[in-house]
Design brief:
This protein is α+β, with helices and mostly antiparallel strands. The chain has seven helices and six strands, in the order H-H-E-H-H-H-E-H-E-E-E-E-H. The strands form two sheets. The protein has a four-stranded antiparallel sheet with strand order 1-2-6-3, with helices on one face. The chain has a two-stranded antiparallel ribbon with strand order 4-5. Strand 4 and strand 5 form a beta hairpin. Helix 4 runs antiparallel to helix 5.
């Protein structure tokens, strides 16, 4: 058998051996080590996603008690702020209530004008009230008031970032939901989203001056009524016949005529606690 002879030197043979060795290592790495590395990277991504989900779940759990508390607070504030208001009524119901109210002071109702609302009231604060001053301060502020919702989202995002960068997640503090709620309530300047409706009423009555004054004083103490104007109207003199002479003379009557304009606030507040309870029971029944 003929012997294979080459002109390769020992250095060339060593170079070829090194190249072949590198090729074998590359092939082995590509088909054996690379899949393992890709699997490890995928597993690392899954771990990172799991950490994010864990932080979100912890935040939700930690905020659950705060959410329940703030729900009770919001419902309580809503009920307290509207407890003195009337339920939404028709014009005939308002007519009956106003007439009975005037009669309860011993006065005689003469005229009644009712302007029914067509939606939630857009109320303007009294010029010299604290609400009006706060509204002017907000308008004149050099920088816009930050959105509480956006602030809360940014803070939660910062918390997640810190946790992922190595911060101990057990030390993470979730901001109380009372902060954005109080901020949103403090910067609220419009009543058009309140659901409160207002009927403008003007009524005229006659009776004693003391009874009319008592009615005005009582209206000033009612939360659901705001006096917008009142005036004493002239009363025509009445004829009186002198029994001795038979002559007719005009005398001033012993009663006065009063016209009062008020704004009557009405709203229908849903029983949110009952709605939530029903929803929870329905969800439990489906589960």
């Amino acid at each position: 058998m003929a012997k294979l002879e080459t002109n390769l030197s020992a250095k060339d043979k060593a170079t070829i051996a090194i190249v072949l060795f590198i090729g074998v290592v590359f092939v082995f790495s590509w088909y054996a080590i690379r899949p393992a590395i890709m699997s490890i990277r995928s597993l690392s991504d899954d771990i990172e996603q799991a950490k994010i989900q864990e932080i979100q779940c912890r935040g939700k759990v930690m905020s659950l008690s705060s959410a329940e508390t703030i729900f009770d607070r919001v419902v309580s504030d809503l009920n307290d702020s509207t407890s003195g208001y009337y339920e939404v009524m028709t014009s005939s119901q308002i007519d009956r209530i106003v007439t009975n109210y005037v009669l309860s002071f011993g006065l005689f109702p003469e005229d009644l004008y009712i302007n029914m609302p067509h939606g939630p009231v857009d109320e303007i604060p009294y010029t010299y009230s604290q609400a009006a001053l706060d509204q002017v301060a907000l308008i004149a502020a050099p920088t816009p008031t930050p959105d509480p919702v956006e602030e809360a989202v940014e803070e939660v995002s910062d918390t997640v970032t810190e946790a992922l960068s190595g911060t101990d997640s057990s030390a993470m503090q979730v901001e109380s939901l009372f902060v954005p709620y109080n901020q949103a309530r403090d910067v609220a300047t419009m009543t058009s989203y309140s659901g409160v409706q207002a009927a403008d009423i003007t009524f005229v009555m006659t009776g004693s001056e003391s009874s009319c004054q008592a009615l005005i004083d009582d209206l000033c103490r009612k939360d659901a009524v705001r006096i917008t104007a009142f005036s004493w109207l002239p009363v025509d003199p009445i004829e009186r016949i002198d029994e001795e002479t038979g002559s007719v003379e005009l005398v001033e009557p012993d009663y006065v005529r009063l016209q009062v304009s008020v704004r009557l606030y009405m709203t229908n507040v849903a029983d949110y606690e009952a709605l939530v309870s029903d929803a929870v029971e329905a969800a439990g029944a489906e589960g």
